[in-house]
Design brief:
Structural class: alpha+beta
Number of helices: 26
Radius of gyration: 37 Å
CATH architecture of the largest domain: 2-Layer Sandwich
Length: about 900
Amino acid sequence: MLIKWTTDKVRTTWLNFFKSYDHHILASAPLVPNDDPSLLWINSGVATLKPYFDGRQTPIAKRLVNSQKAIRTNDIENIGLTARHQSFFEMLGNFSIGDYFKKEAIVWGWEFLTSKKWLNLDANLLYVTVFNEDEETYDLWLNTIKLPKDHIIKGTKDTNFWDMGQGPCGPNTEIYYDRGIKYDPKNIGIKLLKDDIENDRYIEIWNIVFSQFNNDGKNNYTDLPRKNIDTGAGLERLVAILQDVPTNFDTDLFQNIIHECEKLTTFRYDINNYFSQDIKQKAINIAFKIIADHIRCLVFAISDGVFPSNKDRGYVLRRLIRRAVVYGQKLNINEPFLFKLVPVIVKNMGQHYQELHEKIDLVTNVIKNEELKFWVTLITGKQLLLQVIKDKQKVDAAAGFKLFDTYGYPIELTLEIANEKKAIVDLKGFYKLLDTSKDNTRKVRINHQALTVQSSLLTNLKVPSTFIGYQKEQVTTNIAFMFKEEQAVTSLRNEIGYLILDETPFYAEKGGQAADDGVIKSENSIATVIDVQQAPQKQHIHQVEVKGELTQTDVVEAQINSLHRLYTRKNHSGTHLLHAALRKLLGLHVMQSGSFNNYQYLRLDFSHYETLTPEQIIMLEQQVSKWIKGKYPCQIIYCKYEEAIKIGALAFFGEKYEAEVRVVKFGDFSIELCGGTHCDNSQEIEQLLITSIESKGSGSYRIHALTSNKTVNHYLTQQIMMIKEQSNNLFIQYQKNKDNGKQEQVIEKTYHTIKSLKTTTVDWRKGKLLIVELQSLFKKWQINIEELNRQKIVKKYLNLIPKTKNNYKLLITNFENLDIKTLREIMEHYRNQYQNIIIIFINKISNQEYLVLVASSKELHSNKQYQSNNILQKILKKYNGRGGGSSILAQGKINKLISEQEIIENIL
């Protein structure tokens, strides 16, 4: 059947509609939040736009539209059971940042939904809700849109006011579509909407938030200096209505995946089961829905650089894979299969999300590997579960949760097997532990939820300021604005404050590049530049420490630290080349997920499914070195964002870009959108040395590296010196006790090899391995020497003569500061030499602490008074000590030295 409204068509229509009203189309940001600790995932259309709404950044345009990828997994257990719960979804959004407000948002929304030119929905089937105190919005619906009163429902602050406790907030209005009586079998009607009852008849398809107030955190509301519009419409919901299907899972978005899954099993999905409600078929449908939902989420999340692991986002993916595999088993799919569904998703959604095509192999391999691991887990988990049932005849909450949380064993399988074995599972307790675990995760993030309060000082600051740092490093200019503690001032005297200059050579920290440092001088002052940040209106704000008095009327000389800029340029260009080398060596799925460059070093974060080998690190350096020697000029191109993407420029980590962007290009191998400062020629980088690579979690790695001959040579010199110093310290200890054995020859050879190392990259890498080898050799040698020394001590005490008493031998000896191993070995010697012997050793540890060791022969144990522990307990009781042991060997501590005579008289 031909579908008039495909998902791609709905998404494109949305974007084109708002483009016709001068909205700038934003590409979907990655699913991983950029610099937002309050979010695990991007979970809404507005989530990536927080800096625009709170005034920290100025948007590329005041009117914006997007279709944003999003993930929500708070209620993963409901996915597949309801019509609209999904882990991955797309949120259609249109936004106004201080431009249009209520009237335009409502009028345009109504036009898009009802106009024959656009979606052409029946206006008679649309209902709206409004905040009961928002008379302006109510009036717009009633008198401008001409909506009947009985189609406008007034809601409370709970239902129609968007508020996060502190920060921007405001009332909202929602649009609902009435799908008719067949989705309301009890014919409850509009009461479903009025009483906010969960239902499948009245479906929310549009939500407009009027962000007009600021909440100070104590529910005191004041007008925002800049009012905003945040509209959200669920793409999947709109598509389900336009395709006239019962649930989101019955749209083309999911049905293509389900049909592909059907090829792997004899079971079939039945779209009509929503109405027929056959119990067996319902379970089959649920399994298909869960698999289709989870594989979509996995494909997009892995494409954005998240890999399955045991924590945070990676844990979510691991859980999705395992849950999908379990439901695959319910369809009799008893082998890894999820990875086989990846191509159909790429085909489905690759037209809009082009990046999926280049990630298909990566995503397939990651899912396949994780599935294989889980099949091993299923076997292990089943064994553990069977042992729990055998030991306890039940599965208590703690055991069920441990199987689920630690071993990844699904609770569904626990229930299934427990039922087979007629064992009870404490499900209530399990879910209580699960909820506690979820709450703990939420608490980690809850303190960061509120958007920052808009700063009217910077948000509305229009003073002109020009960055000239690409061309000049020093300039004579005027002060455009001065402030401290968010108050404008006309002078700063011996204090820290902030400046905006008419023209500035100082680079503001952004795009991974550190801010310039330097000085700003006037006739009566010198201001050290501590930091430079970009204001919402693009001015560079200089944080300065002023010595003397600086006034706003002063003409100043602004001078950056040119040497620091020089080395920062080398590191920034080195980052671009290193990133290109990573993609060339490992594959185009590798994407930079963060970077930092200053004059001292560079740091680059990237996504990949395994760490780099030492050989790959060397290959990376060799590739970068080849490009450095190639003397490739750095080309700077200014063009439209769309043109930059067409020529292959890479954009990163959800950055927001202007309509005109700056492209930095080295040869044909490195083309990136970047506002940073760079070398004029790749040769100026001189060289690049990777100093370390570390894991930031599953699938995420961080490289530290250095550039320039001077920096690298200094680093290598320090490293070689440190290796030689460590080696020398070990050798000094070794020489004190050397015994000229074979092992010592190896130690000396390794030491002299380290001693001969030169200040080169090759010798540094060799030295890192050699010092580890030397430390290992030294440790083994030290153990041998200690053993030899111990044997010498033992030998000294092998000629003691025990006394004969009654029918046994008695050996009582005092020692000083011998280790327990030596004492026991001496004791063992005499126990083996004599039958019917009692041995008591007293070892002085300090003036107030003595170790007592007692051993007795088995032949004496028939008499309990001769058993070691009983003898020891008499000593401890008499001399106020503590300890214990067995009939053969016992030990304890007392606080005074006791003589042989005292033991014979008082104990034996």
